[in-house]
Write a structure and sequence with these properties.
The complex is a heterotrimer of chains A (744), B (287) and C (163). With 287 residues, chain B is of the alpha+beta class. Chain B folds into three domains: 51 residues, Uridine Diphospho-n-acetylenolpyruvylglucosamine Reductase, domain 2 (2-Layer Sandwich), CATH 3.30.43.10; 116 residues, 2-Layer Sandwich (Uridine Diphospho-n-acetylenolpyruvylglucosamine Reductase, domain 3), CATH 3.30.465.10; 105 residues, Enolase-like, domain 1 (2-Layer Sandwich), CATH 3.30.390. Chain B is built from eleven helices and 14 strands. Chain B is globular and about 60 Å long. Chain C folds into two domains: 76 residues, Ubiquitin-like (UB roll); 71 residues, [2Fe-2S]-binding domain (DNA polymerase, domain 1). The chains are: A alpha+beta (744), B alpha+beta (287), C alpha+beta (163).
């Protein structure tokens, strides 16, 4: 049934857009409080060691400073997340460079820097581990009993039986590096705390209730005494999923001890060096394939570097593992994965969350499998694309009517793939600038994995006031992706109103329910559905009580609200997530319905490679995806375009230079993200197969573009140069050496 | 912000003479501060060691571009934007305009000055190779007088220039009518804009019947200073740019330059790219 | 403790209004605007002149205010994002950013709008290539730039229609 929508599918301008274009939007560093002072963090310079002594240099008026150490922590010295292994402040040992040891506060921001320099921490070094290989080899045990935070095993069919009958066996190892989220607004928090009122923090964050949970544990306070407010947030991308709990804890500890509001804003160098990054990865593929290109078995070994503490690594590993075998029908799959500890700052959430790593490996590998068998990359995919009724590697039966082959057709046509591939192959040998075109086919599950959404038990509320204003109360945060606007459109559509009449309340844990974290491509699909449901409940209440006729004008809606609230009471609906009864997930076997819905995509990248300098330029990019329903075409396209740009960075530019566990290129001059001259016009196309459980049929799309961009580019570089790309970022330095190898 | 900002002095001298007299009275105490695009970055990183500065940004004696029959004089405070917008420079000194266009962003081009760039002496600077190719000369002024020095040789070590601490660069002079029929500039950076160069190549040649009559080659980011590849020039001067001469020149070049590994790139990459850019330049001489 | 320099007076015009502000001589103009003048629309993204979030117009020139010392702002005419809209009427660039998705998280937006405005004041009908180049000093992590270019092109079109 196709519906005429009044709000859904419309390019409604961003709700908070006016504030953003006039400079009126208030980010945390724009706020000041009376008597507010500033805070800074003193950090470890070593990767691993025993703290022997802390000395405070002369020449600083220390009596004017508030100084906080681990001893000042009222509750547990840890940042509560999945487990409790990460200290808020290092006490006796440090386990990564930049680990926080001590906090300082003072009214003078400048003096704080001088003071920070004057704190001398003596650390006795301990042997440290800096690579996946060394961690697995257990050169040192730096975490738990074996350095392994988590491991998974996913099995389908019987991989062992497939090798002997296989006509081709193709192996390969693929690596991806760390990637810094590089939100343009650095991490920041303001805290107020006293033992009577409790703790309140305002800041740049994605998950108010994660911060809430961490502060409740750290301060040993009842839940009502901790309040977390999200300020306008200048980008997150996962980098503000778990880290804000740490900076909020620090600001709050200083606030508690000083008795004053404390503002902590990281400068860029500190932000880059001390906070989370995308997990580096190593994937090994072994694939059995028949002469006709049919995949017989995929054995995948997937390892992530988790840094020094567990934080969210098991969940990142989970998503990476589940996405490792892609949108293909393969009867025998074995995926063994693990995330290991190293003495680097803990790696964390970054858009894609494990999938960009495993999808890079898979899509690069399948181009090589195609070549081994003598098929084109396209033909290999066509002969293996999964269809409705077939099962993914975790045993999930695909119930969506997806046609990956049609997405592939469309993407290849829009990009001029066939003509270009043939022309480039012909012209390249006599060209200094070589060209190539490549693609990646992939899927991305929306929402938390398996029973995750059930565990989150998210809630959202819609309230109608006596003057007909409709408020949406959710813990989901706007950080540029368009949450405010999409929620407004969903509520407006459900109520037959205009978006102007919908107000999205600022996420404040004292006001809004816990809608779960703003991550995992879940906000529109899962929380948006709760918003839709709540709005419909409101409408039904008004109809059922007779205050509202079946067809009505906005004015009549307002009248009905006035009557209802006057005569009956509060007009509100709090809706809690109900896990669909037909989705089953076995956590023990890691089998079942991993995600309620997937977005499906094919991305095509065209590159030029200057053989003199090995500089790669993305000349054209086509992104085709099936997403259920596009709620707002401008916002949806914006998500894909922005994600592709980040994927271009992941593939070509964003190299973290490590020295003994520390990022040494932590300035924007030396950590290279794409400028406007480095990205082409990104051409985005949507298809819609409405997902019944999504609001208006929408699925999640936020992370999708990070999965397919890098492998498409890698495959294009391979066509352009003959270089067998195995590792990203593919910097000119690496590519030049490989080009020389090809021509040697 | 990593520095203790209150500890820094930045004073405005009344005029150029006042600035020079103060620098002469307290040698080494006061450093000139032009547009700030280098010094403020150091300040913010907590790496600005010098504490006392004289703001020369608005001094009219140090601003402006004058054109004379034999040369063009760019006063030290000439910004990259001013270079880009100057018609005669675009015609007669196109490499300088190219270098200016590839320096930082428009915002930094509006504040970055040629004199500041020279005084900062970063081996990765984008304009200095061009100044070498154009045989630039510098006018250095102090309270005790004026002297002119060729730009070639002015740089005598990593971030060191042959200028006394009571001197200021006043003018950069470019001789006109060098008759370089072929000019080439290429900066290979970390990305297409706002990039620090990994290798920067400036070349100019005067050709006659397919033979190189005169040639200049200068590179940035491949040595502790910006670098004039005199030995490579010698091999090419008087020759036709054939593949054999090119190979010989590339070989000499690899021994003349001394690129390093750093956080942006590798010695191997810089070496290979420098040789490839030399090839690109020589190929352009053939047409 | 190093000795502190004397604070100076910075007399300047910001968005047409006269200000007399006190600051250390090497204080960044960015901080003077945000803290002393209370104009928080100009943002800090990197503190090293790379991201352009701090872009303002200083005597008609686009500059990174994180790289300008307070002393050099004395006597200057400054325009910040707060001075771009005309009372309640948004400029063409601002209006286009709203309708064409030029702003997502919004932190780069003030600087981006200043840069776009600066471009259009020099070149009323830029090509897409010219727009790319003019905005290359402003980093955006959210949009991938595509809708920023579309917004600027829309602003040009709207201005063409107006005149």
């Amino acid at each position: 049934m196709t519906m005429e929508h009044s709000q859904i599918g419309k390019p409604v301008p961003r709700k908070e857009g006016r504030e953003k274009v006039t400079g009126a939007a208030r980010y945390v560093d724009d706020l000041t409080f009376p008597e507010m002072i500033h805070g800074v963090t003193v950090r470890s310079s070593l990767a691993r060691g025993k703290i022997l002594d802390v000395r405070f240099g002369d020449d600083i008026p220390w009596n004017e400073f508030t100084i906080v150490t681990a001893k000042d922590i009222p509750g547990k010295n840890c940042i509560a997340l999945l487990i409790e292994d990460q200290p808020c402040l290092a006490d006796r040992f440090v386990n990564h460079p930049e680990e926080a040891i001590l906090l300082l506060a003072h009214p003078d921001k400048y003096l704080l820097e001088e003071a920070r320099r004057a704190v001398h921490i003596e650390i006795e070094p301990l042997p440290a581990v800096f690579s996946i290989e060394d961690s697995l080899a257990r050169k040192q045990i730096i975490w738990g009993e074996d350095n392994i935070f988590k491991s998974y095993r996913v099995e389908k069919g019987d991989v062992a039986s497939a090798w002997s009958g296989a006509e081709f066996i193709v192996e390969g190892e693929y690596e991806t590096g760390a990637q810094e989220q590089l939100y343009i607004e650095p991490q920041g928090m303001i805290a107020r705390a006293n033992s009577f009122d409790g703790v309140t923090v305002w800041g740049s964050l994605q998950c108010p209730y994660y911060v809430h949970k961490a502060l409740v544990s750290l301060f040993e306070l009842p839940k009502e005494k901790v309040r977390v407010v999200q300020t306008e947030t200048g980008g997150g991308f996962g980098g503000k999923e778990e880290y804000p709990s740490m900076i909020a804890a620090h600001a709050a500890l200083l606030a508690l001890k000083s008795g004053k509001p404390v503002k902590m804003i990281y400068d860029r160098a500190e932000d880059m060096a001390a906070t989370t990054k995308r997990h580096p990865s190593r994937t090994r593929h072994r694939t059995a394939v028949r002469r006709d290109g049919k995949l017989l078995a995929m054995e995948i070994d997937f390892t992530l570097d988790g840094g020094a503490y567990e934080t969210l690594s098991p969940v990142v590993l989970s998503r990476g593992t589940i996405h490792a075998a892609g949108p293909y029908d393969c009867p025998n799959v074995l995926i063994q994965s693990r995330v290991v500890a190293t003495n680097a700052p803990p790696h964390g959430a970054f858009r894609g969350f494990g999938a960009p790593q495993s999808v890079f490996a898979l899509e690069r590998h399948l181009d090589r499998v195609a070549a081994a068998v003598g098929l084109s990359p396209e033909e290999l995919r066509r002969r293996n694309f999964i269809r409705e009724g077939q099962t993914l590697s975790v045993g999930q039966v695909v119930h969506e009517k997806v046609r990956m082959d049609k997405l592939l057709d469309r993407a290849l046509e829009l990009s001029g793939y066939h003509e270009k591939r043939a022309r480039f192959a012909k012209e390249n040998p006599r060209c200094v600038i070589r060209r190539g075109i490549g693609f990646a086919a992939f899927l991305h599950g929306a929402g938390f994995t398996g029973s995750g959404e059930e565990y989150l038990a998210s809630e959202a509320q819609v309230t109608a006031t006596c003057d007909g204003k409709v408020q949406v109360l959710a813990g989901s945060t706007e950080m540029g992706q368009g949450t405010n606007t999409v929620f407004a459109q969903i509520a407006a559509e459900a109520l037959g109103l205009d978006c102007e009449q919908i107000e999205i309340l600022q996420p404040d844990t004292s006001l809004v329910p816990n809608s779960g974290p703003t991550v995992a491509s879940r906000t529109t699909m899962i929380v948006g559905k709760l918003v839709e449901t709540a709005a419909l409940v409101i409408k039904k209440s008004l109809h059922d009580t007779g205050f509202l006729k079946p067809a009505y004008t906005p004015g009549e809606f307002t009248d009905a609200c006035r009557e209802y609230t006057g005569k009956i009471g509060a007009l509100q609906s709090l809706v809690k997530y109900q896990h669909p009864s037909d989705l089953h997930w076995d956590d023990g076997k890691y089998q079942g319905d991993a995600y309620g819905a997937y977005a499906w995509a094919v991305y095509v990248a065209e590159v030029s490679v200057d053989t003199r300098t090995a500089e790669v330029r993305v000349e054209d990019f086509v992104a085709v995806q099936e997403v259920g329903k596009v709620i707002n075409p401008v916002l949806a396209a914006g998500q894909i375009e922005g994600g592709v740009a980040q994927g271009i960075g992941f593939a070509l530019y964003e190299n973290v230079v490590w020295q003994e566990g520390r990022m040494v290129n932590g300035q924007m001059t030396n950590y290279i993200m794409p400028t406007s001259m480095d990205v082409p016009s990104i051409r985005v196309f949507f298809e819609e197969l409405p997902y019944a459980r999504g609001p208006a049929g929408a699925k999640g799309i936020g992370e999708l573009p990070l999965d397919g961009t890098a492998p498409a580019i890698a495959n294009a570089i391979a066509q352009a140069t003959g270089v067998d790309v195995r590792k990203i970022p593919m910097t000119p330095e690496t590519l030049l050496e490989m080009l020389e190898g090809v021509h040697a | 912000m990593r520095s203790y900002v209150p500890a820094y002095e930045l004073q405005e001298p009344r005029n150029l003479l006042d600035a020079l007299e103060r620098m002469a009275r307290e040698p080494g105490e006061w450093r000139p501060f032009a547009g700030g695009t280098d010094l403020m970055v150091l300040l913010e990183a907590g790496k600005l060691v010098q504490r006392k500065f004289l703001s020369i940004w608005k001094l009219p004696e140090l601003s402006g571009i004058t054109v004379a029959p034999a040369n063009v004089n760019l006063n030290a405070l000439t910004t990259y934007s001013e270079i880009r917008g100057h018609e005669l420079l675009a015609r007669e000194f196109p490499l300088l305009c190219r270098a200016a266009a590839e320096t930082g962003s428009i915002a930094t081009q509006n504040r970055g000055t040629l004199g500041g760039n020279i005084a900062n002496a970063s081996p990765a600077a984008d304009s200095p190779p061009v100044l070498l190719v154009y045989d630039a000369e510098l006018e250095l002024v102090s309270a005790s007088g004026v002297r002119w020095v060729p730009y070639h040789g002015f740089w005598n070590g990593y971030k060191k220039i042959a200028m006394r601490n009571d001197e200021l660069i006043r003018t950069i002079r470019l001789p006109r009518q060098r008759k370089f029929s072929k000019q080439f500039y290429r900066k290979v950076g970390t990305r297409r804009a706002q990039a620090i160069s990994k290798v920067c190549f400036a070349g100019a040649a005067r050709m006659d019947a397919g033979r190189i009559v005169d040639i200049r080659i200068a590179l940035g980011s491949v040595a502790p200073t910006v670098f004039r590849a005199s030995e490579s020039e010698k091999i090419l001067r008087g020759e036709k740019p054939t593949p054999a001469t090119l190979r010989a020149a590339q070989d000499i070049l690899s021994r003349e330059i001394s690129p390093i590994d750093d956080i942006r790139s590798t010695a191997r990459y810089r070496l290979r790219v420098a040789q490839n850019l030399l090839a690109e330049f020589c190929e352009s001489l053939q047409s | 403790m190093p000795k502190a320099a004397r604070k100076i007076r910075v007399n300047c015009k910001i968005n047409g209004k006269a200000f007399s502000l006190e600051a250390y001589p090497m204080a960044r103009l960015l901080d003077v605007l945000r803290e002393q003048a209370g104009l928080t629309g100009t943002k800090e993204g990197c503190g090293e002149g790379e991201c352009g979030a701090c872009s303002i117009e200083l005597d008609g020139l686009l500059v990174n205010s994180c790289l300008v010392p307070a002393v050099q702002a004395d006597g200057a005419k400054i325009r910040t994002i707060e001075g771009v809209a005309n009372a309640s009427e948004l400029s063409a660039v601002q209006q286009a950013f709203l309708t064409h998705g030029g702003a997502q998280c919004g932190i780069c937006t003030p600087g981006m709008i200043l840069a776009a405005r600066n471009l259009l004041s020099r070149n009323a009908q830029p090509t897409e290539t010219e727009i790319r180049e003019a905005l290359s000093g402003n980093l955006c992590r959210c949009t991938g730039y595509t809708k920023i270019f579309e917004s600027v092109l829309e602003a040009c079109r709207a201005q063409r229609v107006r005149s």
